[in-house]
């Protein structure tokens, strides 16, 4: 079960057919997913048609309509900020800008090969071609990032098609792999065991100070956090980002 706009939905079966993947929606099991729902779905009226069959009730009056680890006042400020940004039209894409982005990527990519083909593989042409190719590849990564967020075209299908061209064809990486990981990152940013960007080997946590203390908190005294975070990491199975809370509902359909 999860909550969207104080409505409780049973997505136990739907999560398997969820277009964004089962993990993204499962990360909010037992939690309020209102803000994530608003961020991930452009056409909310269309998505809500599919939610009607999953509706099982509403939150009880004493239940908060936000995640337990979030501050209500700060959350309301961000919701107001998002509404203001949308009303100002700042989220509307500039197609000419993105056309120039794509054009200069293709020019840089072609130039990297033409320099080596025409001038040979001596040191200077090789370094020049490598510079062109490196800049093109880095910029392609950011361009496909915008496409993956469906930020360029109004219809998600066109974003996905161009993203496949950029990341699959020009960069040689699968778009499905990137979307699967990046969607989880934005669903639960910086939440250990839910954000794939933090799925590093436990040894890496022992090298830092702030992150290792955060992960190890509650198991060891302060002076030994950094030393023993490697051992305590596996012991910590729950955190503020991992807790599945219970939901009280006042009505059931």
Automatic annotation (TrEMBL):
Transmembrane stretches, start-end: 89-108, 114-135
Ranges for domain Cytochrome b5 heme-binding: 1-60
GO molecular function: oxidoreductase activity, acting on paired donors, with oxidation of a pair of donors resulting in the reduction of molecular oxygen to two molecules of water
Cellular component annotations (GO), alphabetically ordered: membrane
Organism domain of life: Eukaryota
Pathway(s) per entry: Lipid metabolism; polyunsaturated fatty acid biosynthesis
Alphabetical keyword list: Fatty acid biosynthesis, Fatty acid metabolism, Lipid biosynthesis, Lipid metabolism, Membrane, Transmembrane, Transmembrane helix
Pfam families: Cyt-b5, FA_desaturase
Entry-linked InterPro entries: Cyt_B5-like_heme/steroid-bd, Cyt_B5-like_heme/steroid_sf, FA_desaturase_dom, Fatty_acid_desaturase
Keyword Isomerase: no
GO biological process: unsaturated fatty acid biosynthetic process
N-terminal signal peptide: none
Name assigned to this protein: FADS1 desaturase
Originating organism: Sakesphorus luctuosus
Lineage of source species: Eukaryota, Metazoa, Chordata, Craniata, Vertebrata
């Amino acid at each position: 079960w999860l909550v969207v706009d104080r409505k409780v939905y049973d997505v136990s079966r739907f999560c398997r057919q969820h277009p964004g993947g089962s993990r993204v929606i499962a990360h909010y099991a037992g939690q309020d997913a209102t803000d994530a729902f608003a961020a991930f779905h452009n056409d909310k009226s269309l998505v809500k048609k599919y939610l009607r069959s999953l509706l099982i009730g509403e939150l009880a009056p004493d239940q908060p309509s936000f995640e337990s680890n979030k501050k209500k006042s700060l959350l309301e400020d961000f919701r107001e900020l998002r509404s203001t940004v949308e009303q100002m039209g700042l989220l509307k894409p500039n197609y000419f800008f993105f056309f120039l982005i794509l054009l200069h990527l293709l020019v840089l990519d072609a130039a990297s090969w033409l320099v080596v083909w025409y001038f040979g593989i001596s040191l200077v042409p090789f370094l020049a071609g490598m510079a062109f190719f490196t800049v093109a590849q880095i910029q392609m990564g950011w361009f496909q990032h915008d496409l993956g967020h469906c930020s360029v075209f109004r219809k998600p299908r066109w974003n996905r098609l161009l993203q496949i061209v950029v990341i699959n064809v020009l960069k040689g990486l699968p778009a499905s792999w990137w979307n699967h990981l990046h969607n989880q990152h934005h669903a639960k940013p910086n939440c250990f065991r839910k954000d794939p960007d933090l799925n590093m080997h436990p040894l890496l946590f022992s090298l830092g100070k702030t992150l290792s203390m955060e992960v190890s908190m509650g198991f060891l005294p302060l002076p030994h956090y950094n030393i023993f975070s490697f051992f305590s990491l596996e012991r910590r199975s729950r955190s503020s980002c991992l807790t599945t809370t219970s939901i009280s509902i006042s009505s059931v359909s």
